[in-house]
Amino acid sequence: MEINDYIFYPDKSLKRDFNAAATNGFSNKKEAVDYLASRVNELSKLQDVLFAHKKYSVIILLQGMDASGKDSLIKNVMSGVNPQGVSVHSFGTPTRDEFAHDFLWRCNRFLPERGSIGVFNRSYYEEVLIVRIHPEFLIKQNLPNMPSSDEEFEQFWDTRFSDINNYEKYLLNNGIVVLKFFLNISKEEQKKRFLRRIEKSAKNWKFRPDDLSERASWDKYLYAYEQMMTKTSTEDVPWYVIPADNKWAARPVVCDIVINAIKRLNISYPKVTYADKRAIIKSKFQLLNEDIVPLSSDNPALK
Fold first, then answer.
1. What single string gives the DSSP state of each residue in 24-52?
2. What is the mean pLDDT of the segment spanning 282-299?
3. For the residues 2-21, what does the mean pLDDT come to?
4. What domain range is 97 assigned to?
5. Which residues pair with 240 in a beta bridge?
């Protein structure tokens, strides 16, 4: 598949147009793992240039149903990148302090600095997903004009979508590349992963009883995701829908998209001026000759 095949366009449907079980052109797991290893090496080199260039940064937003593989994707795709140039933030239930601020605040303060890659495990898009399914979270935000009717709620979500689109334009204008990935897992595969978390003691910590109540709202979430992507998948900042039933097939695709995005920046290591080169040559000369004893009458070794 071509990278454009993963883009969500407004006329597309998650159920109709995207196959969660697709293997993305890989015939088996080993082939995908070997390919990813080579691409991680390429990403590491590009990240080094990004870090030295210091004019752009990259933010990777990961969204998906529970157990869609966000944690393991971060671990595998970012496995070879210099930790100094990467930051990862996971966003759960908002704190009291976060509820007291605007809905973009808690993510905005963790944006990566120039030269860095940031990864958000969930993001400000939770504000048009889980908040849409659970209005009690919206009530806690204590907004001045709380919607009350179905029509007002629809207008409210449209306003948030517009705010997000404007926010992402702002990020682009400031040299922050925004990459948005929806890990598309099927309901059947989620069930298998939940059962593994229950049956394997080493994975018990990952399972929460609340996961099943959220699973019961599967169709509502799917509708919310589709509405979200329809309104916020733009030409400059599209949503990529990544088949995630096979984790090993999802990771190379995400890595490729990140690599291509950095390459499009057309960046390079900072150029060294003529004066800098002269200073470098002088420093090299000093280093090479620092152990040579000068032939001088003031040299104590000659007295």
1. TT-SSHHHHHHHHHHHHHHHHHHHHHHHH
2. 75
3. 94
4. 3-271
5. 7, 181
